[in-house]
């Protein structure tokens, strides 16, 4: 009868034996590890550097504050030297700098294809390597389609830009009218109505600023609103998810507390319609872009066009395909880039300066209202004194 033998014995070590191998050179292994792991990241970093730099230049340009034009700016805008000035400033243009990655890529592809065709034509490569060239007839047939795509893309973007500008101007006009009506109500010195009216005017001045912060991503809400609102009101607005609507609610509540006559209440409430309309238009513009299928079609068309452009132009241009591809890519992609930029209209507008102008106008109107009111009372008193002295109305 066979007995079961144990799988281990006293002579079998409980831990596996490790062979004694000669130590490897740590220097060579570290070099191999560094080479195997650092070559790919360094290549990716090199390839990502130019697009990342270009995107950063573009984002810095979007964060830059715009200024309203002055007469000097218009004079420079229509100057006969503007073309030379624009040419000199090309290297600082964020539109042109944002095109560096695609333009350089297509120019490098054109140079590689020209080198390949030159090598094939010179017989430096085996005979079975084909010469990459084609007829220009397909490009002549598709050129109008590309032109229409770019024109429609730019026109659709400009329509969004104009819609956003018109909505913003309605908001500013509505705020100015509403503030003027509140100021014209008159103030009672030392009363609750005077303080409530002052708070209501602050809310009106704060609304365009809050709407600007809502549509411009790089805005500092707390810093921009601290000159318009008190600390407790500012804390409530900052915590709100939709800050412009929160300020509209402040305005409505203030109007209700003032216990105005029905006619005045309806007039003031109708002025708030421009605020609600402006919020709706701005939310739609910021949340709904031009149909993405159209944007992608235009982009794909441009890419395929310039990928095959050196092949089409080789028979007529030879090495001239390199500068020809560069000029074509720079011009057509520049048109497409302008359409993409103005598709988001609010960073293109001088919103900060317009908000500051509204703030200054309302403050000046408040000061002038007190001065004019005092001046009229003085005149009435003087006329009353003259009437009492002479016994006749003063004409």
TrEMBL record:
This is UPF0187 protein At3g61320, chloroplastic-like. It is a multi-pass membrane protein. GO terms for cellular component: membrane. One of its GO terms (molecular function) is voltage-gated chloride channel activity. Its main location: membrane. Pfam families: Bestrophin_2. Keywords: Ion transport, Membrane, Transmembrane, Transmembrane helix, Transport. It comes from Dioscorea cayennensis subsp. rotundata. The keyword Membrane applies. GO terms for biological process: regulation of photosynthesis, light reaction. It comes from the Eukaryota. It is found in: Membrane. InterPro entries: VCCN1/2, YneE/VCCN1/2-like.
């Amino acid at each position: 009868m066979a007995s079961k033998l144990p799988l281990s014995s006293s002579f079998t070590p409980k831990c596996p034996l490790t062979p004694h191998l000669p130590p490897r050179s740590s220097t060579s292994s570290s070099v191999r590890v560094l080479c195997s792991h650092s070559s790919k990241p360094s290549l990716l970093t090199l390839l990502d550097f130019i697009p990342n730099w270009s995107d950063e230049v573009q984002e810095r340009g979007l964060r830059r504050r715009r200024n309203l034009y002055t007469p000097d700016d218009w004079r420079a805008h229509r100057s006969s030297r503007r073309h030379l000035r624009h040419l000199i400033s090309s290297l600082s243009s964020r539109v042109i700098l944002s095109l560096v990655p695609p333009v350089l890529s297509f120019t490098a592809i054109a140079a590689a294809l020209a080198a390949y065709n030159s090598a094939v034509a010179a017989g430096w490569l085996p005979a079975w390597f084909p010469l990459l060239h084609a007829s220009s007839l397909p490009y002549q047939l598709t050129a109008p389609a590309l032109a229409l795509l770019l024109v429609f893309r730019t026109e659709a973007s400009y329509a969004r830009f104009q819609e956003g500008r018109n909505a913003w101007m309605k908001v500013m006009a509505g705020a100015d009218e509403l503030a003027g009506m509140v100021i014209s109500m008159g103030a009672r010195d030392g009363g609750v109505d005077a303080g409530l009216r002052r708070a209501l005017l602050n809310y009106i001045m704060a609304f365009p600023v809050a709407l600007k912060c809502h549509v411009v991503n790089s805005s500092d809400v707390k810093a921009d609103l601290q000159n318009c609102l008190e600390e407790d009101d500012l804390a409530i607005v900052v915590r709100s998810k939709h800050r412009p609507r929160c300020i509209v609610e402040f305005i409505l509540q203030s109007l209700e507390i003032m216990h105005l006559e029905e006619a005045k209440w309806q007039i003031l409430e109708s002025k708030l319609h421009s605020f609600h309309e402006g919020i709706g238009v701005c939310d739609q513009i910021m949340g709904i872009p031009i149909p993405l299928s159209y944007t992608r079609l235009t982009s794909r068309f441009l890419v395929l066009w310039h990928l095959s452009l050196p092949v089409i132009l080789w028979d007529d241009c030879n090495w001239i395909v390199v500068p020809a591809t560069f000029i074509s890519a720079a011009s057509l992609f520049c048109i497409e880039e302008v359409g993409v930029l103005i598709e988001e209209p609010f960073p293109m507008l001088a919103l900060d300066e317009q908000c500051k102008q509204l703030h200054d106008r309302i403050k000046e109107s408040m000061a002038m209202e007190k001065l004019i009111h005092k001046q009229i009372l003085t005149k009435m008193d003087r006329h009353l004194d003259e009437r009492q002295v002479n016994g006749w109305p003063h004409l």
